[in-house]
Backbone:
């Protein structure tokens, strides 16, 4: 089983924790308290396109409030993926997301870091299209310019949430496979799979 | 006499409470007893909350019915409530357009500013429409359908405290009744009695003393002067003050001890009552009249010095008369005496503390305003702050100096030593407590100072601290340290629960994180050095 460290970043109250909880527990709390520090959750998924592959996400859900900004570097350091969340009804939150993207690009040397830009609260705009402030096209354009994955989701309805993690998982898996292949090719050694098959998925006991 | 007084007071109070009936604090209708008022409050001013006027009306009527049926033999009780209730209004619909919409995670209670969640609950004030949590929208006001106040035809609707207090005719303290006059009357009559008693004692005292002086003058030169004088004096005393009958007294009225062969009866020469002369309880004492005359020098007494030597006659006074005659005089006399050095020093210490206390609030206000406008502080404010700070520091220096002076004084008695110690403790406390805001100033002043003067000299002088950190850096590191410590605690808890739930790989990840946080904390504490938390 492959393990990946994933970190959530973004302005306060854009719905980072809600997205994580939708993904991990498939639940939604209308009145969630704001996060203190950083919360840790983990979830194992099976990649849909490669059926035999399970990957485990170790998710660090950081607090968006300015006070906890100093904690973020500790969690995005050595991360394999970053989810940068903004609120599609709040224009400021996209600017904040962009500043996070810049910080990640500057501070993290790892070229393999998968960054995904996520616009949350899609359900609000489905109710009332006028509430949308950030256009999908604009965000999409910015994401492709920076080489980010992009998805609009709703933590409330769950739309698009699992898709993000599937795409991230796939991308990470492909990266890993490529690097392993490259390593085995250059060294020309026998590739011994040291990792045992997962006993930690939802079907086995003691999970 | 005291007994008479107290019984009169009780009688007065009874008459007061009898004449005043109870008033309803809301509509000021009067009631005969608490039961009636209670029923009236329940029925007419029913404060039970309800979402809809219709529903509320029916419950209110139900309570009325049950009450009147439970006590049908008391017509007085139901009479006011019947008058107050109206037939339930059909189709009462309150205007809702002005209600503030609930935005999840955003809406806050207007009073406590908490974000409204399911746990806190959320209610619109029916009157102003603003959102409140369940515990801050517990008031009720009568509103009409346009959500305006209508005390007569309106329905009881939930509202916030603000709207409740803004309601016309609202009284903050409920029913208020001024009984000062009655109390003053009782008190003044009581103190007038005391004054009369005192006057009587004084006039007796004057007559006795002057009489004694005259007797001395008249018989001082005769052969049997001592015998003659004492008999004349005792006659004089009895003629001025009616002495109580010896047979009536069995025990001393002051100490309640029984008279016996060992405990003799004595008459107080001023009030005439029979008291003992026990040395321990000091119910009565023989005092030289010269001493007494000295103590009451304001009274029109004749000159006690006969020829050259003073009259040495003594006079027996009970402790009660002594107190009422001389206590106040002694107090007034001591007021004019110069204070001992210790107390004088303390007085100046106290004055200094007064100065500090009067300056401190202004100082704190200025400080707060400077803090709020941290980015571009007002020049004038900063000047003011510096001035106030200087003044305070001077005052503190004086305070400290006086304390030291007090501590150097030699004490003669145990009481003085005790006072000295107390003053020392007090001043240490005072300085510690009041100096606190001053301590936090220098960084504000200096950081403002340094941000304005970018010249390198000022930077080196004011911005650098002991271990080469700027003040802003120290602040920043401190908050970081705080956040890290919080996070350490959180992650430790998460690791514990993960271990308990046998999620060992999660626990190991979390433990790694703990180590990381700990390393960062150590790093920061190192950097802060003495500036860190202890």
Residues:
């Amino acid at each position: 089983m492959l393990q990946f460290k994933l970190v959530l970043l973004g302005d306060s109250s854009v719905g980072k924790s809600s997205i994580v909880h939708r993904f991990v527990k498939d639940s939604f709390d209308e009145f969630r308290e704001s996060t203190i520090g950083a919360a840790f959750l983990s979830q194992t998924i099976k990649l849909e396109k490669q059926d035999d592959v399970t990957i485990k996400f170790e998710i660090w859900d950081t607090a968006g409030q300015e006070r906890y900004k100093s904690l973020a570097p500790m969690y995005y350091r050595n991360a394999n993926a970053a989810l940068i969340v903004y609120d599609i009804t709040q224009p400021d939150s996209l600017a904040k997301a962009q500043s996070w993207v810049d910080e990640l690009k500057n501070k993290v040397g790892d070229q393999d870091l998968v960054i995904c830009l996520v616009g949350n609260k899609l359900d609000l705009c489905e109710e009332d299209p006028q509430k949308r402030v950030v256009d999908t096209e604009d965000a999409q354009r910015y994401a492709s310019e920076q080489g980010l994955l992009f998805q609009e989701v709703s933590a409330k309805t769950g739309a698009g949430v699992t898709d993000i993690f599937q795409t991230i998982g796939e991308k990470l898996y492909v990266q890993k496979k490529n690097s392993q292949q490259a390593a085995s090719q250059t060294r020309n050694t026998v590739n011994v799979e040291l990792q045992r098959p997962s006993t930690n998925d939802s079907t086995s006991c003691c999970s | 006499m005291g007994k008479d007084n107290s019984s009169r007071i009780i009688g007065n109070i009874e008459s007061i409470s009898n004449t005043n009936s109870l008033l309803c604090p809301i509509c000021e209708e009067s009631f005969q007893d608490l039961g009636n008022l209670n029923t009236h409050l329940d029925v007419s001013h029913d404060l039970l909350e309800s979402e809809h006027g219709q529903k509320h009306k029916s419950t209110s009527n139900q309570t009325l019915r049950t009450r009147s049926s439970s006590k049908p033999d008391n017509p007085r009780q139901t009479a006011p409530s019947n008058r107050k209730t109206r037939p339930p209004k059909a189709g009462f619909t309150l205007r809702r357009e002005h209600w503030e919409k609930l935005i999840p995670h955003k809406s806050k209670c207007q009073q406590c500013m908490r974000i409204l969640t399911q746990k806190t609950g959320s209610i619109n004030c029916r009157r102003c429409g603003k959102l409140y949590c369940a515990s801050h929208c517990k008031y009720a006001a009568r509103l009409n359908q346009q959500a305006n106040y209508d005390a007569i035809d309106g329905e009881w609707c939930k509202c916030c405290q603000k709207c409740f207090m803004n309601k016309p005719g609202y009284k903050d303290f409920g029913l208020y009744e001024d009984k000062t006059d009655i109390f003053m009357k009782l008190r003044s009559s009581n103190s007038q009695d005391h004054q009369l008693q005192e006057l009587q004692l004084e006039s007796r005292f004057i007559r006795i003393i002057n009489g004694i002086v005259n007797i001395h003058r008249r018989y001082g030169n005769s052969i049997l002067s001592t015998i003659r004088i004492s008999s004349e004096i005792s006659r004089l005393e009895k003629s001025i003050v009616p002495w109580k009958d010896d047979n009536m007294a069995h025990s001393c009225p002051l100490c309640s001890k029984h008279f016996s062969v060992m405990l003799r009866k004595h008459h107080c020469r001023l009030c005439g009552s029979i008291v003992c002369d026990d040395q321990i309880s000091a119910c009565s004492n023989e005092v030289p009249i010269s001493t007494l005359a000295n103590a009451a020098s304001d009274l029109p007494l004749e000159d006690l010095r006969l020829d050259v030597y003073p009259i040495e006659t003594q006079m027996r006074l009970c402790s009660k008369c002594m107190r009422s005659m001389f206590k106040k005089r002694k107090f007034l006399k001591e007021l004019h005496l110069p204070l001992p050095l210790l107390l004088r020093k303390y007085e100046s210490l106290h004055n200094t503390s007064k100065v500090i206390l009067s300056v401190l609030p202004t100082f704190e206000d200025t400080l707060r305003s400077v803090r709020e406008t941290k980015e571009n502080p007002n020049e004038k404010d900063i000047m003011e702050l510096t001035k106030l700070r200087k003044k305070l520091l001077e005052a503190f220096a004086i305070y400290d100096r006086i304390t030291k002076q007090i501590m150097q004084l030699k004490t003669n008695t145990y009481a003085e030593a005790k006072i000295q110690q107390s003053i020392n403790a007090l001043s240490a406390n005072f300085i510690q407590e009041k100096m606190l805001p001053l301590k936090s100033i220098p960084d504000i002043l200096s950081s403002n100072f340094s941000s304005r003067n970018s010249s390198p000299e000022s930077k080196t002088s004011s911005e650098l601290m002991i271990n080469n950190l700027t003040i802003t850096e120290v602040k920043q590191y401190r908050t970081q340290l705080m956040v890290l410590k919080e996070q350490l605690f959180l992650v430790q808890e998460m690791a514990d629960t993960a271990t308990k739930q046998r999620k060992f790989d999660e626990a190991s990840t979390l433990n790694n994180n703990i180590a990381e946080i700990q390393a960062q904390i150590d790093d920061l504490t190192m950097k802060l050095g003495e500036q860190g938390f202890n």
